[in-house]
Design goal:
Layout: H1 2-33, H2 41-61, H3 63-80
């Protein structure tokens, strides 16, 4: 069961990472075509990338604890229902 939950968490993290990359690419395309109304896209891109880096670094360091927490949360939900 732990392997299935870990796999699900890994798939979720990969999906989120690819989504962030796609949105960053999309934001870059929009900002380069409309230079007059860029807003604060570079600031949000920087915040998003930095947040992703922090999450990946913490996941790398605390992987076992994260898997245990996710497993515990899924088991609590399964047992409650």
């Amino acid at each position: 069961m732990n392997t299935k939950i870990a796999h699900t968490a890994n798939v979720w993290l990969t999906t989120m990472t690819l989504t962030v990359i796609a949105r960053l690419h999309s934001a870059k395309d929009r900002s380069s075509t409309d230079e007059g109304d860029r807003g604060d896209v570079p600031g949000w891109v920087m915040i998003t990338v930095m947040t992703a880096i922090v999450v990946l670094a913490l996941l790398g360091i605390f992987r076992d604890q994260v898997e245990a927490a996710v497993t515990s949360a899924f088991e609590r939900v399964r047992n409650a229902g």
